[in-house]
Amino acid sequence: MPPYLIGLSTGLILAVSTGPIFLTLLQKSLQHGFKKSLFFVAGVGIADSGIIFLTWLGMSQVAGDEPSPWLALGGGLLLIVFGLTFVFRKEKQNEEPKIETDKKKHLAHAGLFMQGLMLGAINPVVWGFWAAMSNYAITTFSNRQAEFFYFLGILNTVWVTDTLKAYFAPKLKTYLSQKVQRYLRIGIGVVLIGLGLKLIIENISSL
């Protein structure tokens, strides 16, 4: 399968994630409307792109021209840890989108953009996730071009689904119960654990 298509499918992991960024996006859309919330989406997208570049660059320097099997094993373990975190993450009863009623209801476009940018940039989970994905890309694909199209596929999925989330925010808020969020997190965790096991199984014989 082409790297771009693999990236599109991998992006679904983030698309169904119900973490702080997703819930904040719903809140911004409900509060400011669909068009203004797109500036928040753009901020998150820029943050993701920058983090991908930095983590991919760092992993590439570590891996060199021929990635070590140990790097793949480490990446596999990291993915498994992330997956277990999603599976066993405890519920937070207050973790649901809310409509703010403060004086900043008509927040400027630049303010929404900066909020999305900062929320993505300061979240350590986001950095860890993209580091794991960078490791996966480097140890799975044979060249930098393939890695680029893999990440492009992920980002395209995320951008499109985030836009759809903003548009359908009122309906999503209605159906986004704690039980549904729990099932989504478990599903994401199982996928990440599967990717981690795949990396380990494919590279353990090379040690």
UniProtKB/TrEMBL annotation:
InterPro entries: LeuE-type
Pfam families listed in its UniProt record: LysE
Principal subcellular localisation of the protein: membrane
Membrane topology field: Multi-pass membrane protein
Subcellular location field: Cell membrane
Domain of life the protein comes from: Bacteria
Bilayer-spanning residue ranges: 6-26, 38-58, 70-88, 109-130, 150-170, 182-201
Keyword Membrane attached: yes
Keywords, comma-separated and alphabetical: Cell membrane, Membrane, Transmembrane, Transmembrane helix
Name of the protein described by the UniProt record: LysE family transporter
Source taxonomy: Bacteria, Pseudomonadati, Bacteroidota, Cytophagia, Cytophagales
